User: What shape does this take?
Amino acid sequence: MEHVERCLFDLRRGLPIRLRDDTVDVLIWPVEHLDENALGRLRHVADDNPALVVTGHRLASVKAIASQANETSNARIGITAADAADDVIRWACTPNVEIDAGRIGSGPDDNIDTLALFLMRCALLIPAAVVATIGVDTRGELDTDVDTRDLLSIEPATVHAYEAGRPEPLKRVSESEVPLADASSTRFVVFREPDGMREHIAILIGDSQHWPTPVPVRLHSACLTGDLFGSLRCDCGEQLRGSVAAIGKRGGGVLLYLAQEGRGIGLANKMRAYHLQDDGLDTIDADQVLGFSEDERRYTIASEMLAALDIHTIDLLTNNPAKLDAMRQNGIAVAARQAIYGDLTPQNRGYLNAKATRAGHWLDNLLDHSAER
Assistant: This one.
C-alpha cells in the first residue's frame, strides 16, 4: 500500500508513474500537469500515439457526442502529432468543447484506464490522464529511470488491492477537550486513515454516559469556504454550527467532521467548479464537466468512526438520503432522521435547488417556505 501512496504523492507533484506487469507497460501523466515537455516525453516513449483517458461523466459533457455518451464508461481521446498540450487540457476539463467523434473510443485495456482515473481521484487531481504504451525501444530507458528512483513503477494488482479497501482500521491518534461556543462540553477525537493521507475528527458533544438513545449524529464534510470563512455560496457553515447547537440541546451526541472537501473532489477542484458555476453551470454539471460524478464522497470512514466509538444506532441529522443509505449499508442502524437547514440566500438558492431537484436532497420544506414569503 505504501507504494501506491508514493505514486499519489508523485502525481500531485506533476510527475508521471509507470504501470507495469507481465501484460502491460504504460506511462501515465496527470493532465493537470501536462505541458509540451510532458507531451513530448510521452510521444518519445510510446509505441503509438498517446491518448487522453477521461471519465464517462466528462465525455457526457462534450458537445459533439453528448447524446452518445455513457456516464459509466471511460473513454480514450486520440492525440495526434499535430495536437498541443493546451488542446489536450481543453478536451479534459473545458466546458462547451467539441471533439471529433472519430477521435473517441475505448482503450485496449479498460482496466488500465480505470486504474489511471482512480489514481487521479485519490490524488485529488482532475480525473483525466494521458496514457502511453511504452515501446520496446524505450523500455530500457525507463527501466533506468526506475532504478535511479527518477520514476516510480507499480503493478496494476497493487493498485487494485489499494482500491479494494484498507486492510488496517482507522487509527485513533489524539484527543482533547475543546469547548465550543454552542457546546461548552466538547471533546475532539482525531482519526487518521492507514495511508496517512487524511485525518477526520469525531466531535463528542456532552457526556457520553448521558447521551440520548438513539445517539444524535451529524456527518459533516469539510467545507473550508463555508465552515471557516462564512461563504454565502453554500449553507455548510450554518449547518455545522446549527448541528453542534442542536446536538448539545438534545443532551449530546457526535458530529463527524470528514475530510471530504467539495463533495470529495478536493479544494482545488472545488474552486474550478465554482468558476464554472460563475459561467452559468449548476453545482452538479460543474463537477461533471471536470469529470466527477455528482458526489464523490464515501461514508465507510464515518461508519468505522462510529463503530470505534461504540455507537451502532443513531438519529441522523441530514437532508441527504445518500448518507442515510450509506450508514445502513455499513452496519449503522438509523432509527430516526432530523432535518438540518441553513438560511436560504440569493447566493445559495441555485446551489440548494440543484441539490434538491437533481441529487434528491430533502430540502422541500426550506425551498417551499422561502417561496411563500
